[in-house]
Amino acid sequence: MDKEIRRHYTLLVDFLGHILGPDYEVALHELTEDSNQIIAISNGELTGRHLGSPLSNKMLEFLSGRLYETQDYVLSFESTSVTGKKMHSNSMFIKDRSGSVVGLLCINFDSSRYQALSKQVMDLCGGALTPAEPSGTSLIVDENDPSESPREQGFPTSIAGATASIVSSVVANYPVDVDRLNQDEKMEIMEILDRKGVFLLKGSVSFVAKELHSSEASIYRYLGKLSSRGGR
Questions:
Q1: In 151-164, which positions are buried (b, 16+ CB within 10 angstroms) versus exposed (e)?
Q2: In angstroms, rounded to a whole number, what is the distance separating the alpha carbons of residues 199 and 223?
Q3: Alpha-carbon distances of 75 from 41, 89, 105, 221, rounded to whole Å
């Protein structure tokens, strides 16, 4: 991200944070070859994030799946805050003149105050509040996918935390104990982790090697196989 783009979007984060109010977290992520982190944020207390925090796990998955090649933004997908509150999230891919993704502008809305107020009003009226259907593109985690876990949908506050939450969950949910995994099963786990964007996080290879009881060299070999067959 060049200096002018960074300055423009940093100002936009501050502006939107004031205009939208305390129920909206606005975060600017800078993407580089070996890391991603927040470089500007407003109302970060909603998710517990701060300057230097990594992307949410769901956005890592979108990047790994190259969603930015077919659309410029993602609307109305669901995430979970550190306090367990459901957040309504929207993210825009920031691209340079060549079309490469250099950053993300993310807006996360905590509607809990309004839901509580609506419930109080409806209780006074003697009625029941029916949740509204979300508008826009719905990209909510499939609850029937065994590789998904509620804690994977949240907002990690550190790169180490982001890596640990995804890797530990995938390994724990895999039907075979890690000590009994053969090479094909480890390869399958590697595919899941790659799809979730784990290897976009700095230092992830070392953590994955430890969790799979493998060497870092073995993990790099698995990644090489994924690349050779078009899995990356």
A1: ebbbbbbebeebbe
A2: 9
A3: 19, 7, 12, 36
Can you give the pLDDT at residue 160? 83
pLDDT of residue 129: 47
Q: Hey, CA dihedral for 115, 116, 117, 122, is it positive or negative?
A: positive
Task: Give the list of residues 6+ apart from residue 113 with CB closer than 8 angstroms, or none.
Answer: 23
Question: Which tokens sit at 208?
Answer: 């994955």
Q: What is the pLDDT of residues 173-205, one digit of tens each?
A: 899 998 899 999 999 999 999 988 898 888 899
What does R_g of the chain's alpha carbons equal in angstroms?
19
> What is residue 214's DSSP assignment?
-
pLDDT value of position 127 = 54
Please report the pLDDT score of residue 144 as a whole number.
41
Strand arrangement of the beta sheet that strand 86-95 belongs to: 36-42, 24-31, 101-110, 86-95, 73-80
Fold exhibited by the domain 3-114? Beta-Lactamase (3.30.450)
The DSSP secondary structure of 159-208, one letter per residue, reads HHHHHHHHHHHHHHHSSS-GGG--HHHHHHHHHHHHHTTGGGSTTHHHHH
Low-confidence ranges of the chain (pLDDT < 50): 128-129, 132-152
Angstrom distances, CA of residue 229 to CA of 37, 45, 78, 223, 224: 30, 42, 32, 10, 9
